[in-house]
Amino acid sequence: MNIFESVPNFSTSDENIIEILKGIITSGGGTFLDSTSDRDHNRSVITLIADNDRIVQILFDLAKSAKELIDMEKHRGLHPRIGALDVLPIVPMGNSTMNEAIEISNKLGYRIGSELGIPVYMYGESAKIPERRDISYIRNMHFQYEELKQHILEEKYKPDYGPAVLGSAGAMMVGARNFLIAYNVNINTDDVSKVNMIVKKIRSGKYFKGVKALAFPIKSKGYTQLSMNIYCYKCSPINNIYNFIDSEAKGMGFDIESSEIIGLLPADAVALSLGKFIKADISGKNILEYKILGSYGNR
Length: 299
Description:
Radius of gyration: 19 Å
Subcellular location: Cytoplasm
Keywords: Cytoplasm, Folate-binding, Histidine metabolism, Transferase
Order of helices and strands: EEHEEHEHEHEEHEEHEHH
CATH class of the largest domain: Alpha Beta
Pfam families: FTCD (PF02971), FTCD_N (PF07837)
Shape: globular
Enzyme class: transferase
CATH architecture of the largest domain: 2-Layer Sandwich
Pathway: Amino-acid degradation; L-histidine degradation into L-glutamate; L-glutamate from N-formimidoyl-L-glutamate (transferase route): step 1/1
Number of helices: 8
Oligomer: single chain
């Protein structure tokens, strides 16, 4: 029995809907780990794990409920999106393999497309078209649900599974990938153009590897959010990214208001960042809980 993590992104911040989705996970035999919601983005991220016998049905049921509960015609939020259940990643854990995760993602994509009538785009390691490995090829700040409605019949936007018809549930991106860290840094300025200068440096690849970034004006809180996905946290430790942004912001006369992790992150990512900060070689072998779990696992 192999375990997989999934981190579905839903286009809602409605607490009642999130509670329903949590119930689907637990009643289906999965383990709910975490959820993070944001009203400005009108988006929620749920983290769950399940074994290979249950993961497909649980995620299918989440997609079905999202279709029933979330209307993309009414959705408004800062974060780019194309569907009610917008992004659905499958992450292999432990002895699970990427090939198994790819197989699961395709089973899931086929069922969602054929049974729910939702257009599905395979991304990441599951991409059937090389350009679609990157989410931004289909969905970005300039191309979202509204634009996809107009262009879905074009060859570039032909779905991998399901119909080339966009209903009120929108479309979905499904794929296998490795762990990533979603990390936001909030800078105390409402000048998004200034923060975008930092974004461009991060995205250039000159300073960090495997980091994607966007800037969002969070008007309700009076700051600009620099939102990142860190695909290679070993190449680009969080503390290095924070220090870089802090230095760039201070150079413009701004300070960091706060930063936040969205969802969960591996313990070795914390150990790596701490090790960089205190100039020590720290890894999972230094983490007490790792040792305890390993000890019990070997009994």
